[in-house]
Automatic annotation (TrEMBL), chains A, B:
Keywords: Signal. It comes from the Bacteria. The lineage of its organism: Bacteria, Bacillati, Bacillota, Bacilli, Lactobacillales. It comes from Vagococcus humatus. This is CamS family sex pheromone protein. Residues 1-24 form the signal peptide. Pfam families: CamS. CDD domains: CamS_repeat_1, CamS_repeat_2. PROSITE patterns: PROKAR_LIPOPROTEIN (PS51257).
Amino acid sequence: MKKIIKGLLLGVSLLLLTSCQGQTTEKQPLPTTNRKEETGKIVSTGRVDEAEYQAVMIDGKYEISQARTLSASYLNSHYNLANFESGLLTLSKENYSVDSYLFREGQLLDKQTIMNWLDRKSKDNPTGLNPESEGEPLVVQQVLEQDYLDKKTQKLAGISLGIAVNQVDYSQDPARNIDQETALTVGKQAAQTVIEHLRQIEAGANVPITVGIFEQATKDDIAGGAYLLKGMTKGSEVTKWTEVKEEYITLPVPEGETNSATKDGISNKYRDFKEMVQGFFPNLSGFSAIAHYQDKKLDKMVIKIETKYYSETEIISFTQFVGKNLLSSLNIPGEIEVQINSIEGPQAFIVKKANENTISSHIFN
Amino acid sequence: MKKIIKGLLLGVSLLLLTSCQGQTTEKQPLPTTNRKEETGKIVSTGRVDEAEYQAVMIDGKYEISQARTLSASYLNSHYNLANFESGLLTLSKENYSVDSYLFREGQLLDKQTIMNWLDRKSKDNPTGLNPESEGEPLVVQQVLEQDYLDKKTQKLAGISLGIAVNQVDYSQDPARNIDQETALTVGKQAAQTVIEHLRQIEAGANVPITVGIFEQATKDDIAGGAYLLKGMTKGSEVTKWTEVKEEYITLPVPEGETNSATKDGISNKYRDFKEMVQGFFPNLSGFSAIAHYQDKKLDKMVIKIETKYYSETEIISFTQFVGKNLLSSLNIPGEIEVQINSIEGPQAFIVKKANENTISSHIFN
């Protein structure tokens, strides 16, 4: 996902943006949902990044989901949360183009419905998606809805559904492993249940639903989980599930292990780069990297460097050194993002965009 | 100070950088200093930002000052530290051009010498720059040396000296205020002492010395202090001190106060922008801004927004909204930097460069 942009916001571009904003709904009814702001006026956030959706705003406010805090509290790490959400955006872009659709946080599923699904099935909770027996691990960990509105009609025109399943159930001691086949089977059943529920809500009765099954990584995995399967509804069913070939890999890969990053040599290149940078700068307290592969190709590398803050001039010199060596040491076609942080906050960042050989850097004030 | 850059590191630029790196010193003696690495090979960090100095590296390592931890421990806030250091870089650029000089952390003054200066004068510490009597407040808080090497000869060709003086001496309870006139008088005397000391070191005997007197802001001032005076040596003296017209102003300015940001209307513009953004996004836990004026002109505004992290999609939408409104609401010629952070770390940033009407944004992974 290409997230850095340059937006010429004057002249022609400003006019274009202004005309987009102008698509208010005072004359058009909103899709029927359980929202209360139906008399409000839809405008969008606008867009400064051509690769991202504009989001729906009602009366100058960002429209939040009822279930917005659920993912943050249910998923077991920030890394899982970020991959779960941004991965579903990526799957959505395949079906709903960023130019023709507006993004809205999920408004059809309410918090209580989702919480009931995430519990075990029982007499008191007949809709639970997790096994009735305490002897079996919890598989379904989170359900995420994203809504996509047609930019012209401003009606709901697509839904995306993320189902997060566990590799490990931490709810009991000791934690219990879940084999991937079981997790996927339960995940697909859960998707079916949620789709049927959406079909009973007027706004969701007929729109296409994009579904992704996300495998949550373990708590201590700083790479985070990834999507394993994707599908699209035909009527009320996903008839065909396709494998999502997505991997998040922590670099460098431990000796002896084999994966996409050892096969294409990135793991070793990164190891050399890291050693050179650590040799240069005397006070780095952390140095980590995650590579994201899509269809076995490296599309992004994120490097996080934690430094003790002693001096502004050290940070400037360090950033220049890292920036200068980034292209020569890590000459990959994908995007590279380097964050340089300290406990005082972000100090600097460097970015090389995908398919380009230029870098941008910024020293924070 | 313009810190964001785009460096075309391929083609011609790469050749230029490579030729700069090529200036090693194996055949040329290093300037005589108290460093131990004199057999080492000078290369520079390289440069990705044309507005910044390249820094000296010895044997692949960044050359740190003996006194490097002193500023961080002696100054009373991160904001003071950043302004003290980057302000001295700015003064240096007036006298030593970034194209012709290399930067090196100060190597001539050792840690013990500086620590003795910062103490009170006494029988045991005859070189102390602070008043002998405990009844008088401590005025001189820090001494910072920066070295500038001629790129061609690789010899020390300029020194910069920052003298930080206090508005408030916190070393005793209750803290004691110091009037600015006294602080400047003591600061200038201190500069004279340090210059005389540098003249006795062989490497510093004849090079020009740029001096700045920095007034440290109070502990709770998030704008940080600023330089008040600057001067340049003639021989062993600064014969003429010039006022540095630099201000850091916290925005919005409280009602009733008057300063550069109320006179040019920026304070009100910022207040409106802040209110609009806070209205849009439901979970901002902090929102602050500092404006930097140079010669009564706004040259930079830094906005820091702290948000609770609930969702990747919230951050993307928020960044787009802020970015879109930045130019229309805050149409200033100077640089604007917006940092969007959470306790999870940096989430996004937006920058508008000086004298441009384009913005760049980046959502961190």
